[in-house]
Each structure stands twice: as structure tokens, then as C-alpha cells.
Design a protein that fits this description.
Strand content: 15-25%
Number of strands: 3
Structural class: alpha+beta
Radius of gyration: 12 Å
Number of domains: 1
Shape: globular
Largest sheet: 3 strands, antiparallel
Number of helices: 3
Length: 67
């Protein structure tokens, strides 16, 4: 994954969906349920993700065994 960059870089939902190999609809559902990475709400329809927040979210989900 090419997420290593400066903390201030931001992604659109489409860009993040492409990076994570999921749909934008899945990201929307994660936002709705509060289970996804932190996001910025720039306007009622403009959502962005800070790369640092996505990295932190991924780190929280890294496992060494199944539960």
C-alpha cells in the first residue's frame, strides 16, 4: 500500500477506496457506523481522509492471530 507520506496529505473517498480495494459505498457505511478511519467533513457532500488517520486506523486493526 502506498500510504506512507506526509501527515497532511488527504484522500478522497474514491482514492481511499482504490487504495483499500473496497467500494466507496463500503467507506460510507463505515463512516455511518463509526467503524472507519477518522474523516474530514468539508461540506455536506465533501468528505476527505487524512493519510495519517488512515494509517492509525489500519494500525489499530493489525492482528497477529485470529480471534
Amino acid at each position: 500500500m502506498s500510504m506512507i507520506a506526509t501527515d497532511r496529505e488527504i484522500l478522497t473517498p474514491a482514492q481511499l477506496a482504490d487504495e483499500l480495494c473496497v467500494t466507496t459505498g463500503h467507506l460510507a457505511q463505515l463512516r455511518f457506523t463509526g467503524q472507519g478511519p477518522r474523516f474530514l467533513k468539508l461540506s455536506p457532500r465533501a468528505v476527505r481522509y487524512r493519510k495519517a488517520d488512515v494509517e492509525a486506523w489500519l494500525d489499530d486493526r493489525t492482528k497477529v492471530r485470529t480471534e
